[in-house]
Each structure stands twice: as C-alpha cells, then as structure tokens.
C-alpha cells in the first residue's frame, strides 16, 4: 500500500513516469500499461507496476532507446475489465502509445484486445490464458506461461506419482474459467480421469462445501485448483487444512506463484505443489542454467529497490517490457507496425519465464519445460526432485 500511495494511484486517473537523464529534447517513446494495481488482483498488478517503473527508470538513466526516453503511461483498472477497456481506448486515442505492456488478468486483457487490434498497436499481455494468443492475433503477444501449459506440467507430475483419479476445483473469474477448460481438454492425455468437478465464486470466503463434496467422492486421489485470482486459492488451502484433507495431495495453479499465497495459506500450504517460473527458485538452480544470471540480476535489482520478495508477476512484466524494448532496437524504429514485426521475430530472448522463441504461429514462444515444479516446504518453495 505504501507503493500505491507513493505513486498516488487512483481508479479514475493515470500517472505518468518520466524517468532518467535522457535529453528532454528527444521525443519520448510512449509505452502504455493498464494494470490491476488495486482491487482483488492487486497482488498481481502491484509488482508488475513496480517492475515497469523500475526498469523504465533504469533504461532512461542509461540513455533510453534509440536515443529517446521512454514515457510509461500507466492506468490502474482496479481489477475491472470495463475500466481496463476504457483506459485502453484512452491510451490509443489520447496518449498515442506505440506499444502496450500490461493486462494483469485474463479478464482485463480480453476486454482490451479489440482496442489494440483495431488500432494496430502491439499488445504484450501479462496474463495467463492461452486464449489470449490462440488463435494467433496479429498484434497480440504474451510473456508468461499459459494455463494449458500449467495443466500439462501438473498432469505430468500426477502421472509420475500414479495419481489417476482427481478432482478439479476452480474460480469463476476469467483465468479460472479458461484454465479449467484447458485442463479438461488435455487431462485424458495423461491417463487421468475426473471424478469431481467443482467451482467457486470470486467473492466466496468459504470453500468448505465444495471440498466436503470432494472429500466424500469415492476414489479421489488428488485435488487440482485450476485457477482463480485474488485470495480464493489461499482460502481454499486453509479450508483444505481445516477439513484434515492433507492425505489427498493438493495442487495449485501457476497464478498463485507468490510468497503471499504461502503467507495467507499458513501451515495448510505445506506439501502443496504447483508449476512456477524459474524466477521463484533462482538461487536453487545450477550455475550452468542459462537463465540463472538473468534471474539473479532481476531478483537483486527488485529486492534492492523495494525490500520485498520477487513474484512471477513482476517477472512477467520485466520480460514483456524487455521484449518490447528489444523489438524497438531491432527494428530501429518506434513505429507500431515495426515493433510488431520485430516482436514476432523474437528468438533466444532469455527472460524470467524461460527462453523465448516466437514465430508467426506462436506469439508466446515457451514450452512446458520452462516451468519448474515446486512444493511448499517449511514456508518456502522447494524444487520437486531435488
């Protein structure tokens, strides 16, 4: 909240960050972002906003891009898709941005996509759903892993553990709906059958009824919370512990990849498994890992600036911004169409989510191998199998 106050954010107005020591004579390159800095998804949007501000400041202090300063135009959608759409329109029509890096949630991203498609401005989303980039949309890209990839990584682990009958439970927000659909599409590929399928609302404060039904389901061997924003996953985990269900392994989705989840869930999170970007276990990776230097650099920079742990969400913002900046450099132009074309040619970019190889048919460029599977042990992430 101190960060929010210091930036004087509010739901009805934008703040602009003019950073660095670049000559004021050079015309700034305007990059827009709409983030859920407040509201139910603030745990996603706040580290994203902090990361973008931090790295725009650093880029400008080092001379900007193509000799021009970056101007970051930021709006807080308070986790509301309708507000996100309104701000997206403002970025295009009033702020004249050349690229967009943002969209904290699937719901807000999907609301904004048509705006940037019509304007033919490249949009690098920070949200999770595979539906953002499938089918491929010319102007739309994405930096974090998809929900389908998370499903596949979890099912790989379940299969290895011999878990063949599972229960799904998911929130009914945009990410929850999308990930549940994607998991159901691929689950049978792993010899796994669904014996229970439950949902919960975004405002629900007790998932005991759904978990009680799952507990009473004959043969259930594991539970997978396939998506939700806000505090839903932590509430679910606490209820799971209160019902004494620890004998049934609980898996969470990659959307809860934050230490806040462990803190909010308490002791009940012990033993929970989930797929996460390598960023969250950077110090545990071997020195030979090609991502490690990038991960450690981002971690040190962020923690020095804000005195708090990094999250996958901030890492996604770093990746998105840097890919856009690299595209501007590669194109030697800040024209939206040139940036778009260069983004699509991103090949070998080493980010916090993985090593990116985009193409005209793939506007993400990551595989399931980019995910690390972790288990909560003693209040921290522990790499499974190590």
Describe the structure.
This protein has helices spanning 2-7, 42-61, 81-93, 106-119, 147-160, 174-186, 208-215, 232-242, 259-265, 292-306, 312-331, 336-344; strands at residues 14-18, 29-35, 70-76, 99-102, 123-125, 140-142, 165-171, 193-200, 222-225, 250-251, 273-277, 347-350, 355-357, 371-377, 380-383. It has 386 residues and is of the alpha/beta class. The protein folds into two domains: 2-146 and 292-368, Rossmann fold; 147-282 and 371-383, Response regulator (Rossmann fold, 3-Layer(aba) Sandwich). Strands 1-3-2-4-5-6 form a six-stranded mixed beta sheet, sandwiched between helices. A four-stranded parallel beta sheet has the order 8-7-9-10, with helices on both faces. The protein is globular and about 65 Å long. The protein starts with a helix and ends with a strand.
User: Which structural category fits the helices and strands?
Assistant: alpha/beta
Spatial shape: globular
Sheet with most strands: strand arrangement: 1-3-2-4-5-6
Helix content: 25-40%
Share of residues in strands? 15-25%
Number of domains: 2
- Separation, N- and C-terminal Cα atoms: 36 Å
CATH topology of the largest domain: Rossmann fold
CATH architecture of the largest domain: 3-Layer(aba) Sandwich
Total number of strands: 15
The topology string of helices and strands comes to HEEHEHEHEEHEHEHEHEHEHHHEEEE
Please state the CA-atom Rg, rounded to the nearest Å: 20 Å
CATH homologous superfamily of the largest domain, by name? Response regulator
Task: State the CATH class of the largest domain.
Answer: Alpha Beta
Number of helices: 12
- The overall pLDDT, averaged over residues, is 91
Largest sheet: 6 strands, mixed
Low-confidence runs: 1-24
């Amino acid at each position: 909240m101190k960060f929010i106050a210091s930036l004087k954010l509010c739901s009805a107005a934008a703040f602009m960050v003019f950073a660095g020591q670049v000559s004021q004579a050079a015309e700034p390159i305007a990059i827009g972002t709409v983030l859920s800095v407040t509201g139910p998804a603030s745990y996603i949007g706040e580290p994203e906003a902090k990361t973008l501000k931090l790295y725009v400041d650093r880029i400008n202090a080092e001379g900007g891009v193509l000799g021009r300063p970056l101007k970051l135009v930021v709006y807080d959608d308070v986790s509301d898709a309708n507000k996100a759409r309104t701000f997206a329109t403002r970025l295009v029509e009033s702020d004249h941005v050349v690229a967009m890096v943002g969209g904290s949630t699937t719901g807000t991203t999907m609301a904004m996509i048509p705006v940037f498609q019509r304007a033919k401005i490249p949009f690098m989303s920070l949200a999770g759903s595979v539906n953002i980039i499938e089918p491929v949309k010319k102007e739309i890209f994405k930096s974090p892993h998809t929900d389908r990839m998370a499903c596949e990584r979890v099912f790989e682990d379940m299969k290895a553990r011999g878990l063949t009958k599972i229960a799904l439970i998911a929130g009914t927000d945009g990410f929850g709906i999308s990930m549940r659909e994607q998991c159901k599409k691929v689950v049978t590929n792993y010899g796994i059958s669904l014996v229970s399928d439950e949902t919960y609302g975004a405002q629900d404060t007790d998932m005991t009824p759904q978990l009680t039904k799952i507990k009473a389901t004959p043969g259930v061997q594991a539970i997978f919370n396939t998506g939700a924003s806000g505090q839903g996953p932590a509430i679910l985990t606490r209820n799971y512990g209160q019902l004494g269900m620890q004998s049934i392994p609980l898996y969470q989705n990659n959307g809860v990849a934050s230490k806040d989840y462990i803190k909010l869930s308490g002791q009940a999170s012990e033993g929970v498994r989930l797929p996460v970007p390598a960023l969250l276990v950077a110090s545990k990776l071997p020195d030979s890992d090609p991502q490690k230097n990038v991960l450690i650099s981002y971690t040190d920079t962020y923690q020095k600036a804000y005195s708090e742990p990094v999250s996958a969400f901030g890492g996604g913002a770093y990746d998105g911004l840097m890919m856009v900046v690299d595209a501007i450099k590669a194109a030697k132009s800040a024209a939206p169409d040139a940036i778009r074309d260069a983004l699509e040619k991103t090949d070998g970019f080493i980010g916090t989510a993985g090593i990116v190889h985009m193409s005209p048919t793939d506007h993400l460029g990551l595989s399931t191998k980019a995910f690390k599977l972790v288990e909560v042990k003693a209040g921290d992430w522990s790499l499974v199998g190590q």
